[in-house]
Amino acid sequence: MTQPRLLPDVKNPLAAPFWAGLREHRLVVQRCPACGTKRYPAAPLCTACLTPGGEWVDVAPEGELWSYVVYRRALSPAFADDVPYPIGLVEVDDARLQILSRIDAPPDSISIGARMRARFTPVTETVTLLSWAPAEESAAAHD
Amino acid sequence: MSVRGRAAIVGVGTTEQGELPGRSADEVAVEAISLALADAGLGKDDLDGLITCRAGLGVGGVDTGVGELLGIHPRYSATLQYGTCNFSLHLAVMAILAGLADTIAIAYGATQRSEKINFGVPHSVDLASTAGFVHIAGPAGLALQRHKYLYGTTDEQFGNIAVAQRQWAQLNPLAIFQKPLSMAEYLEQPYLVEPLRRADVTMISDGGAALIVTSADRAAEFPKPAAHVRGIAETTALDGGRTPENLMRPWIANVARDLYASSGMGPQDVDALYIQDPTAVWVLQMLEYYGFCPVGEGGRFLAEGHTYPGGRLPLNTNGGQLSESYMWGWLHLCEAVRQLRGECGPRQIPDVEVAMYCSTMTFAKGAASIISTSR
Ligand SMILES: [Zn+2]
């Protein structure tokens, strides 16, 4: 994946632990200290029971592809060099969290219901991005 | 509780649509109100209520600004942060029932085309945005891809939404996109955000729309036949939906249930249907949730041709946002009123008595109204 021109705000205190986790090739999300509900994206309080804060815990970075789209035209100039690019919504096995990101696979090879695993790609010294890849393929890439 | 027999629409105004360079959204909203007042045989000082709507992503639309430019000081005024007109109509009905006002202009003006608003700019710098998940075509495309996967909906079935609306638009002088669009031409269009093509996504345009709402007791005093409000309903999904299923927006079915219960009507009573369409996916979803076909059957229903001119379920006879103009749904209700009055010339539906308008505020809210020639 080429380096995206648009980079996330990894210093925002609310989400900084999430980005720190990606730098360590871990997927971490908040868990409510009172009711245990996990949440993504980061929020200042638990929307299930309104308890403030949350502890950051690891979740297995894998799940099932719920749906996907392929951007065939750049709707923002920031992505002009990237088209065509697929984006998928993966329902992470742990707590049915939904995480949307780029899919690292040719558009024609993507299918709903496929097992997906996270791929961690450092793009700058402070930013590592998560993308999704079909589970078998990404396992092979790490071997 | 039902609102039946309590309020009616007695004036409609629509400005030129397309590009209105050098004009502000508030100025365009005031022009629309002037046209609606003239249509209702009223002067601006007859208004005792004003409900405006944020000017899309552009500048303006606040009641204090529009009211100042209109030179009025009504008893009641308010601004809604979101469009589609349904929510504005409902607020007007509530204000009338509460005795806060009796002759209310509801209005929208936008100059998003001339302001060169880019709807593809990321809203934030989170993981999805930095991956390039921008524009309403993103989530709408996810929902359509899932619909195709679950129910076998085909591109051609789905394409009937854009193709039928273009046929209607060709009969509507106000519509911006008049060029014929055959199914073959639709299918030849490259994907924009696959599985959506350009024809499945709203245009961006300038323009204004306004309606005059009053108590049903006074409806006979006006020069044009009234469109009586027979039922209204809303729901929200403000919790944002923590599961992917929220992209399918199943909560829209709750609006349908409440609307039909409060009006005593059902889909079989609807002579003309209007569905707000920032993307054609919204039309597919709402056809199903409002009971015009079973959930999952939308594609097959569309392929049967019911929504085309001459079909048994005329749908978005103005051409909708896909072909008429992007007025955040406001022109749908204007068209519904004009159909009930019999003012629509070559696209006029014969013997139309009941029209229904369904809309949503993306993934957060839904609303619908039934209006009729009879009280
Ligand atoms: Zn909690």
TrEMBL record, chain A:
Gene3D superfamilies, alphabetized: 6.10.30.10
User: Which residues does the UniProt record annotate as the domain ChsH2 C-terminal OB-fold?
Assistant: 56-120
Q: Which InterPro entries match?
A: ChsH2_C, ChsH2_Znr, NA-bd_OB-fold, Thioester_dehydratase-like
One Pfam family name from the record?
zf-ChsH2
Q: Per the database record, which ranges form the ChsH2 rubredoxin-like zinc ribbon domain? A: 19-50
What name does this protein carry? Nucleic-acid-binding protein containing a Zn-ribbon
Q: Which organism is it from?
A: Frankia canadensis
From TrEMBL, chain B:
Give one GO term, molecular function aspect.
Answer: acyltransferase activity, transferring groups other than amino-acyl groups
Name the InterPro entries for this protein.
Answer: Thiolase, Thiolase-like, Thiolase_C_2
Which residue numbers delimit the Thiolase C-terminal domain?
252-370
Q: Which domain of life is it from?
A: Bacteria
- For this entry, the protein name equals Thiolase C-terminal domain-containing protein
Organism of this sequence: Frankia canadensis
